[in-house]
Amino acid sequence: MKLLTSIIAVLGIIITIAFTIFPIGNLTIFPAIITILCGIILYKIYDKEGNNTIFPKIIIGIAILGALISSGRALLTTDKIAEDLRFEQRQEKSNQEAVDELEGLE
Amino acid sequence: MPQKPIRNVLVLLLFTFYQNNSAQELSSKSFKSGEHLTFQASYNMSGVLTTFAEVNMKVATVKTSKNSYLHLKCTANTYKKWDGFFKIRDLYEAYVSPYTLKPSLYKRDNNENGTIRKEKYIYKGTNIQSTYVRGKSGAVKANFTIPTNTRDIVSTIYYIRNLPIENANTGDQKDFNVVFDRKTKSATLTFMGTETVSTILGNKKCYKIGVSLKKDKLLKGKSSNIIYITADKNKVPVLIKFSIPVGSGQLKLTKAYNLKY
């Protein structure tokens, strides 16, 4: 039980960190919740055994932090596209070339 | 002064004017030059829709020394937040007749995280003169034949908007051909009835149209690829749900400028 919960918690924290880095918004909450639950279970087991509870505390802390960062970013930032001068120039060039092509077809 | 020839000329002029106007009607049924639609593209990740790109569809008039064309332009840009991970700057264009919407030229210029893919089709009846560039390799030119009334992906979208959907009954189907990646693909549109969709234009009654490609892994099954088009004169595509082999997602209308009605 302790080993399985630890494995799930470690996997959960890896996914939470990865999802926090990637801009995938609220999806981070799912692995974070699983990690927090595993962290609480581990905390109770460690506490019951009289062991140092630093590991479950770190797990819970990182998961909460990841969920907060992702949710905050999803709420506070709006979806915007970057101004891309090169792409705009590509479009203008393409249009000009197209006009020449069409002239050639007539 | 002979009056009959003058009258004949006038009749001919009026007839030509009438013909031009009725032909103009054809292309301007549901959209006009200057129309600009913006969509938000989302990808389904474990049941949660994650926004990743903006798709813009613009209609403009392009004039050459002899003719004028409708320039149908479709661009896809990943949002700033994704640019560092996977940057997409895709351009799809079709130059079509403003009267018949028949394409004369199709261009595709994709840059997906540095991978370049360019394609150009010059329509000559049922023949296409294509030029294809992938990566750093040089341009490959090829000619191929297409069935009549075959269109590229961009002009097909606008063609669908001009179909008399209002006369269709649930379950009605229409087959058509699309040329993509230098291959002609047979597709079927299925009218799946109407549905009210919450959109940027308000709650709109929409035509629900299923799209499926025959004998193709892409866009398989009519129920998973659906276009919702407003059941009004503008026939604006407000929601497009797609399912591809690597997942599913949707395009949702976020802005609409210069609608015809």
Could you explain how this protein is built, in words?
- Chain A is mainly alpha-helical and 106 residues long.
- Chain A has one domain.
- Chain A has 4 helices and no strands.
- Chain A has helices at residues 2-21, 29-49, 54-76, 85-105.
- Chain A is rod-shaped, with a radius of gyration of 25 Å.
- The model of chain A has no long low-confidence stretch (mean pLDDT 91).
- With 261 residues, chain B is mainly beta.
- Chain B has one domain: YmcC-like fold, CATH 2.40.360.
- Chain B is 15% helix and 55% strand.
- Chain B contains 3 helices and 15 strands.
- Chain B has a 15-stranded mixed β-sheet with strand order 8-7-6-5-4-3-2-1-15-14-13-12-11-10-9.
- The radius of gyration of chain B is 20 Å and the shape is globular.
- Mean pLDDT of chain B is 85; it is low at 9-26.
- The chains are: A mainly alpha (106), B mainly beta (261).
- Chains A and B meet through helix 4 of A and strand 2, strand 3, helix 2, strand 4 and strand 5 of B.
Tally of helical segments of chain A:
4
Fraction of residues in H or I helices of chain A: over 70%
From the spread of the alpha carbons, the general shape of chain B counts as globular
What portion of residues of chain B belong to β-strands?
Answer: over 45%
The quaternary structure here is heterodimer
Q: Radius of gyration of chain A over alpha carbons?
A: 25 Å
Task: Please give the largest β-sheet of chain A.
Answer: none
Q: What's the total helix number of chain B?
A: 3
Number of E-type strands of chain B:
15
Low-confidence stretches of chain B: 9-26
Biggest beta sheet attributes of chain B = 15 strands, mixed
Q: State the secondary-structure class of chain A.
A: mainly alpha
CATH topology of chain B: YmcC-like fold
Low-confidence stretches of chain A: none
